[in-house]
Amino acid sequence: MLTLASLVIITAYTYAAVVYSTPLKGKELAMGNLLQWETSYETNTDIFIIEKSTDGITFKNIGSIDASGDTNDEKAYRYLDTSLGMTKSYYRLKVVDQDGTSSYSQVTTINKLKPNQFSVVAYSSALADKSFDISIDALSEGQLEFELVSYQGELVYTDFQFLYPGLNELQVSLEDATEGIYKVKLRVGEEEEVLVIQKAGDELAKKVNMASTKKIGRH
Asked: Which of the four, 38, 67, 91, 93, has the lowest number of CB atoms within 10 Å?
């Protein structure tokens, strides 16, 4: 017979359990390291904390993703690490449960052949009228080439901007573009990143920008 005391003890030792149908793995992309994993069972999970190391010993928190809590369904997770200048990186997941206890996944390693020299860290709303603003973190000095291209592949214009180490601000003019979907291509040497935006009318762009706090996706 369960007493109140035994129920308290059982509750106190409730912990998160995760079954990985696909263990943590990663691959190199032009814009950073993409981490992916899938679970087939979760109970009492709260968040996945992504931890990174350069030596495989000392790890630090670089981001987190909400877990599913309690589920028997397949769940897929993705995280993009856009840190600059690293050739070899170690990653692991810290699974934190709803009571604050935690456990760790296995470690996965990515050997990056082409370390990122620049990274997009912030940008304005994907729905814009006259211009699109981008914040770029650069590892070293260099020349950035950027293009505005229609979604059908037609080049609107090409321009250049010198990058300094650290944070740089870039403004892409949309004055000569008609309404529609565009790609902004950013290139330093052989490294390239592409952002997808939409040129909209002034009133619609203002209305969306007033409430927009999210970043757009990369493609």
From this structure: 38
Return the pLDDT at 2: 42
pTM over 0.85: no
Count Cβ atoms below 10 Å from residue 157 Cβ, excluding itself.
Answer: 12
Separation of alpha carbons 85 and 165, rounded Å: 12
The number of beta carbons lying within 10 Å of the beta carbon of residue 97 is 21
Q: Domains in the chain, start-ordered, CATH in brackets?
A: 4-111 (2.60.40.10), 118-211 (2.60.40.2550)
Map residue 9 onto helix, strand or coil. Answer: helix
Q: Which residues of 202-212 are buried (b: 16+ CB within 10 A; e: fewer)?
A: eeebeebeeee
Q: Around Cβ 77, how many Cβ atoms within 10 Å?
A: 18
Per-residue pLDDT of 112-131, as tens digits, reads 777 678 888 888 877 888 88
CA 43, chain centre distance (Å): 25
Q: Does the structure show a pLDDT above 60 at 82?
A: yes
